[in-house]
């Protein structure tokens, strides 16, 4: 999921292919840190993260089952590596501070699973259908 998320920061197909070919997360993170984000990235990043995570859960039955066991508990993306504190505080929580946007997205996916809407939303997000 991280590879797809970071690849989406660029409109350059060559850059996106480089992310696809990186087997190791450390290599991917190094490339991501050097990447110039597109001008509209901050506007697109929530939608991209939701699409990437919907795809991750849809393709992995074990992850869906694990998510279902969380019941209605809050999902907190606790950040331990503060390389980019602004980004970390947007996606997660550091010392009880942060927006926890990734946790909220995963909770939304869980709610959609419970309501029987997850597959439809995955199809619409993945194939640009409305």
From TrEMBL:
NADAR domain mapped to chain residues: 3-114
Cross-referenced Pfam families: NADAR
InterPro entries according to UniProt: NADAR, YbiA-like_sf
Protein name per the record: NADAR domain-containing protein
Lineage summary: Eukaryota, Sar, Alveolata, Ciliophora, Intramacronucleata
């Amino acid at each position: 999921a991280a590879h797809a998320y970071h690849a989406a920061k660029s409109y350059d197909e060559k850059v996106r292919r480089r992310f696809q070919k990186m087997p190791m997360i450390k290599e991917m993170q190094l490339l991501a840190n050097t990447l110039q984000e597109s001008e509209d990235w901050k506007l697109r990043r929530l939608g991209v993260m939701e699409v990437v995570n919907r795809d991750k859960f849809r393709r992995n039955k074990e992850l869906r089952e694990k998510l279902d066991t969380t019941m209605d508990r809050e999902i907190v993306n606790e950040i331990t590596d503060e390389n980019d504190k602004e980004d970390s505080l947007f996606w997660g929580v550091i010392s009880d501070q942060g927006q926890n946007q990734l946790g909220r997205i995963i909770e939304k996916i869980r709610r959609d699973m419970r309501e029987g809407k997850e597959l439809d939303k995955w199809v619409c997000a993945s194939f640009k259908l409305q």
